[in-house]
Amino acid sequence: MPAGGRVNRRGRSDVIVVGGGVVGATCALALAGRDLEVVLVEGQAPAPWSAQQPDLRVYAFAPDNAALLAQLGVWQAVRDARAQAYRRMRVWDAAGGGELCFDADRLGRSHLGWIVEHALLADRLWAALPAAGVQVRCPARVEAMEQDASGVRLRLDDGTRLDARLVVAADGAASTVRQLAGLPVHGHDYAQRGLVGYLRSERPHEDTAWQRFLPSGPLAVLPCTAGRSSIVWTLPNAEAARVLALDDAAFSRELTTAFGARLGQLQIDSPRAAFPLKLQLARQYVEGRVLAIGDAAHVVHPLAGQGVNLGLRDVAGLRQLVADAQARRAEWDTPHRLQRWARTRRSENTVAAYTFDGINTLFSNDELHTTLARGPLLGLAGKLPPLTNLLWRRAAGP
């Protein structure tokens, strides 16, 4: 589905973004908004969002990224369709001890963030591409790539050849572009799955994002519109398969027990699905004139709901790099600028990834000494407002 766009007389665009998910589409819009000539390559266009069929994949969207989408002219369209603000977050351990609570009023905010469906974000982002001047190549996949000091050339599966000053790999955890560029990755499989679905609760969700740590993994219950909530239930692979096979009544009983009946009886109210969890980090984000963002650069544990937020901060950093260079009437794609962006983003994403990894290791076990310590640690953090504020600023972004 080609769309209008700006490509210079030499047939070379400024940037080719490969991957049209939430992070890739946002990147294309952000760079086009800096008056760059942008091409977006994607294998399959997102299905139109349907209000009657909510996407099982939801994000806890941070305020800084909502501000980014607002600057790109997309956020209001998302909020007008369906987005649930949450004002509190409560975290506690099934083994006992204290509770960590983030409260918008105490943090001087109107809300902490929003729960938004993946499909809705993708739909509204793609709707904004034509007006931004982004040239869309879809369906199309990258088959080959070569680069030199001046630019990158791609061959697509339909035989089309594209040429650009810079290529951005936003094509997911199994990124073809990252592999073609020779960007190495490392990490490990968690041997866990994240089980997702929607539920209705006996008591209101109180505009609160809830998370209970269990020896099998964390269970998050996230507030949604129309009184429903979304779950992200981390379970070992075999246990996830067992729970998925239960009928709705038995599943709802186990879910209520796992959540400690905090909101009374829970009733599953949608199909269920599960996806495998892993930690995967690129050892470097830039190779020549190819750089990686989002899941192509970092896949983290979903317990803090920060995966898409980290990816969009990659985009915000890249957009700022271009803006700073343009303000100085300098070249925006010099190696030292790209490497500075890469060092900053890799540092932040690596710290976040291993923080989530450590929390998962600490709480997803029933070892006696660890169990005795972790509840009181949560309680202590919850009683120290400066620490609570610091933790929240880290999650909410600048």
Automatic annotation (TrEMBL):
The FAD-binding domain, residue ranges: 13-323
This protein's UniProt keywords: FAD, Flavoprotein, Monooxygenase, Oxidoreductase
Cross-referenced NCBIfam families: PRK08773.1, Ubi-OHases
Family: Belongs to the UbiH/COQ6 family.
Name of the molecule in the record: 2-octaprenyl-3-methyl-6-methoxy-1,4-benzoquinol hydroxylase
Superkingdom of source: Bacteria
Organism whose genome encodes this protein: Pseudoxanthomonas spadix (strain BD-a59)
Single annotated GO MF: FAD binding
Flavoprotein among keywords: yes
InterPro entries referenced in this protein's UniProt entry, alphabetically: FAD-bd, FAD/NAD-bd_sf, Ubi_Hdrlase_CS, UbiH/COQ6, UbiH/COQ6_monooxygenase
The keyword Chaperone belongs to this UniProt entry's keyword annotation: no
A Pfam family: FAD_binding_3
Known cofactor(s): FAD
One GO-annotated biological process of the protein: ubiquinone biosynthetic process
Pathways per UniProt: Cofactor biosynthesis; ubiquinone biosynthesis
